[in-house]
């Protein structure tokens, strides 16, 4: 074979791929996340990677995102089909850049087939034409849940979100984290109460949302640029910096409900927040796992109530590892109906890449195999195959070595791949229906009857004390 | 909210999406397939959806496929970035149309990080610009395994494939199926022995491969068109129609090895086939699950030895539900190295769609929830939340009803979604730390202590006799 030196076979910039040890970690995390999502009754959907361009651009939802359109390239022998393939300009299609717009389209497409409140999870790949920088990918997997209703949606759905976030990150064993909860109505109401004009409130909230990132001095400057007086700015900064225990902050907010000029929004926001906090506690989430942070707002203006961010303690520079909130006018856009919803999102590809770099997570072994049946005598292969199948039927992942090599090399190769056990059967052992089981983790080698091999291996995998 | 009537929110033609009950079936099948793949030590990888166009078109691998290229569309506020985004013609990128070419690129990209023989599985989406007809999708999921080596690859890897196919389809519970095995060297060798010219052999094999589809008369015509004599044609047809038990066919082939003019290829093919068949048997695959079918060749010319097709008995019109074979010059194309490999592929999206239509598979319930904690008294919500969490910690998927509705409606809604159990707690029950458990499948309603609820539900799920 000749090598075609001219072909650049590297991945296109920004399109990541994982080594097996990394992909296995991703699948492990996806399994955990899916299990938690499903335990709360969220059901899976997957929308196509490709949507009509007009869907993706509906109501200006493209936002700042660079979308990739798709265009068919015919092979040389099928050029004549060009006109028949039905790919005209009006049929322009593109890759989805998030899961929200396609979710809205999914709801419109299947409105009468779905049961509301509809709680769904989605763990699809999305595509954005970002300039590829560290941690910015052009293709990445997002793990999203949303529950949406026709009519009213209980605030207890908002309360479930921190419980779900807590369970996921405790199971991933990621270290200490805190979920910061706020309610945009509180911010809106407070801004109204200090006399900020209605048309400036969203901008001011966006500026405040950056407090942690750009610092107090910069926030003050930006508010000043918007024409906010220094007195108003002081009040705002003092307000969003309110801290203390969850109950401290709640009490301060309740005090303000009786002492601020009435705005409607503020008091409603505080009541909503209290309901959510009570729900989070009733769901058994420990107080150390969440706090009220009046400075967070989620830049996205479609959030209208509860908002969440999740900070990994000691790794604040990673930014929020799971965010979301409540919205009203987002998923009903294609059917012209207000559909209240609440959702969260984990940007999994980015999270894995950053947690690996930060040493917070480790990759798994390069193979799911737990056992190698080594090959020391070719004519015993039928026995090697039989023993391999017996172990597989017991739920163990097994590689049979088909190539005969020195035993030491076979051990080494297994160890290098992170395979823990080797099963060794020579002529004598075969005659006695026995095998030697080598535990590469402990170095130990014991004799085990064929019939007991599966149980012995499973016992060792499950019980670290036997190592 | 106003509805934008002008937006066509349907999926683009050929890009399918599943309802929750269908997506849950897909995930269930993916779980089964992944578990079997991993039990043989196949490790997961996922290559990006997007590759450089030159990679996808390397060595003419586009074949007959219509590829989708991607092109960035900048949002209105970022038009100025056009020139900076690095998306020039020489960087042309497109969506992968299969997993073979990207696998070859993956190997080239990570040659020194992988351990050979490298056994990987991949269950990614691929994209082809087919005209959307019944069962032909433009985006679909393929479940592929391949094991490739640098140097030699044991024929026992070929033997594992039918064992893997058997396990998967037995676990999916798809009905009776048979894996048809052949070896292209046998066909090539036989064609040589009857005097077909070397440059005609591949074409003749392709014609024979269509025997089942187009029938004997049409095959004869097409062979005649190629200038094959009627005597040669008779011999060929007689040969590929050899049937009988596995041992019958093997014995007939072995007889021919001693009676045909020596071609090298034929005898080698028979020896390979016998080794593979022995391996399949040693792996415990029942004889009823496979046969030797000398007429199959897999159209794709890159196969060089063993080939497989899988037929669902009674549903032959579905075509092969899992196919594959051995190749030599496929995955080493980017590094200019012969890398023998053997692999199989399940076109999962198409398979599910056809099996559902044929009534062979049923969808799952629309939600993973197994239990609804109903809401009959708002002030007991803290207890409903607590009981829900307790059940979740026991591994049960639970929905808590946050909206209070008549009890009958809550039962109905649960039943409609396929949720089997309702947990009912009123004031009296709450005081006694008890609940009523309603099994909607049996209609039975029993009283259970809170502490025993999880075990009772799990017992009923696992043991159908309690229904």
From TrEMBL, chains A, B:
Its main location: cytoplasm. Signal peptide: none annotated. Keywords: Aminoacyl-tRNA synthetase, ATP-binding, Cytoplasm, Ligase, Nucleotide-binding, Protein biosynthesis. Residues 29-368 form the Aminoacyl-transfer RNA synthetases class-II family profile domain. One of its GO terms (molecular function) is histidine-tRNA ligase activity. It comes from the Bacteria. It catalyses: tRNA(His) + L-histidine + ATP = L-histidyl-tRNA(His) + AMP + diphosphate + H(+). The keyword Aminoacyl-tRNA synthetase applies. Belongs to the class-II aminoacyl-tRNA synthetase family. HAMAP family: His_tRNA_synth. Homodimer. This is Histidine--tRNA ligase. It comes from Aphanizomenon flos-aquae FACHB-1249. The gene is hisS.
